[in-house]
Amino acid sequence: MKQIKITSSATVYSNLGALSTEDQMLMNKAIKARGNAYAPYSKFHVGAALLLDNGEIVLGNNQENAAYPSGMCAERVAVWQAGSLFPGVKIKKLAISASSTITKVDKPIGPCGACRQTLSEYEINQKEPFPVIFMGEVGEIVKTPSLLSLLPFSFDSSYL
Ligand code: THU
User: Fold this and answer.
1) Residue 134's pLDDT band (boundaries 50, 70, 90)?
2) Which residues pair with 72 in a beta bridge?
């Protein structure tokens, strides 16, 4: 028997103004993208903004459906849009922001497990980590150094 330790670190910022200019710009895009979410069921609006290596910014927001599981998260909408428009172009960073029309989202909202798994495929393929920056509507902002730091023991193509 052996014990192993899994560690990861993240930086926590107290407000948007504490971010670098580029991170701030990308988070503002995610905040704007959130405004176009279609979330009549959960009332939870998520925006995602990907900065790509070619300078393009690709946005996504959650798109819900009356048959609930048929909806899609903001992060996957964004990353699949990026993959379809700019195949093979590296992701430099991802910003995510969430708000709700029923509560004040004052905690950083990290990507769900399915989005982490989906995003991990892209980080692994590009062989370069990309930071993930996430927040609620207000409050602290978390920045992780990579996607995989959010997904220990992840499943990847090497297992197939
Ligand atoms: N949602 C996202 O867009 N991203 C996440 O990482 C978590 C959840 C969406 C899905 C659904 O439309 C709503 O938020 C509530 O779960």
Assistant:
1) very high
2) 63
| Residue 122 beta carbon below 6 angstroms from any ligand 1 atom | no
Q: What is the pLDDT of residue 56?
A: 98
pTM for this structure?
Answer: 0.97
Contact between 33 and 60 under an 8 Å Cβ cutoff? The reply is: yes
List the structure tokens of 98. Answer: 């969430």
pLDDT digit string (tens) for 24-56?
A: 999 999 999 999 999 999 999 999 999 999 999
Q: How far is it, in rounded angstroms, from Cα 28 to Cα 26? A: 5
**Ligand 1: which atom is nearest the Cα of residue 62?**
3
- Best residue among 31, 34, 62 to mutate for probing ligand 1's pocket (most ligand atoms within 8 Å of CB) is 62
Does 39 contact ligand 1 (Cβ within 6 A)?
A: yes
Domain boundaries, the chain: 23-150
Q: What CATH number has the domain spanning 23-150?
A: 3.40.140.10
